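Can't paste images in this forum, so I'm doing it all in text. The chain is below; anyone willing to post the predicted structure tokens underneath?
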Amino acid sequence: MKRIFLIYGSTEGQTEKIAEVISDVLRERGHDVTMLDVKEAGDGILEGYDGVVVGASIHVGKHDRHIVDFVRRHQDALARTASAFFSVSLAAHGDRPEAESYIEQFEQETGWMPAKVALFSGALLYTQYGFVKRLLMKKIAGDKPGELGTDTSRDYVYTEWDGVRRFAEDFASQLEESAAPG
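Text version of the structure:
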């Protein structure tokens, strides 16, 4: 059993849902997982963990600033620990080059080059937005490549849950193999 720290930054909740699925998969594999919203994180929390998973959503073209700050502060510990990063954005649904550019920007901002990276599509939660945000998100969805929904009377979840589970399984396998004798 490995001790894994999973920290995420979520604005509208989709990144948290993805983190929960990753946590569930890791626990099913017998690992002890501490999952925490970055806004609740203090200093020195990376000590004693065998692995770290970091997740952040993209809003207005940037990763969650709390995650960026967290990674900057804990860059040395992340470099010494098996770690992975997942990025959640609408760009991951239909505009892969843009989604990959967010990862490059994150690595430049933080100086951290995670060994394992995943891009997950987010969600358009029109029914949860206020009037102005709903109109703005509809315009953004209409202007983006790919098939983003513009019917503001419903929500759209684009996250590919099997891909999320594969990411968690791959990370668990990597941790387990690093501890295997021989």
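Residues 125-157 form one domain. The helical segments are 14-28, 65-73, 75-80, 96-110, 131-143, 161-179.
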